[in-house]
Amino acid sequence: MREKGIDIRGHTPRLTSEFDAEEWDLVISMGCGVDCTDFDVDRDWKIPDPVGRSLEEYRATRDNLEMRVRDLVAEAEAVE
């Protein structure tokens, strides 16, 4: 992420149960075999988990996510 100018050193993962799902407009699952029984998933991007893989795999995952988020923003802006 540093290559993209994003500092995630202070990031810690949080459980979805720590949030109020009623406040969400859209729930997107990355896939990764995670069971999302606490709430309804609107979209499942089915992105493979790069854990334990090469740096190139992490970069590919990052770039895939970036592309999908940019597409999602463009989609939302087109609706406005």
From TrEMBL:
Gene3D superfamilies: 3.40.50.2300. The keyword Oxidoreductase applies. Pfam families: LMWPc. The keyword Transmembrane does not apply. InterPro entries: Ptyr_pPase, Ptyr_pPase_sf. It is an enzyme of class 1 (oxidoreductase). Its EC number is 1.20.4.1. Keywords: Oxidoreductase. Residues 1-72 form the Phosphotyrosine protein phosphatase I domain. GO terms for molecular function: arsenate reductase (glutaredoxin) activity. This is Protein tyrosine phosphatase (ARSC2, arsC). The gene is ARSC2.
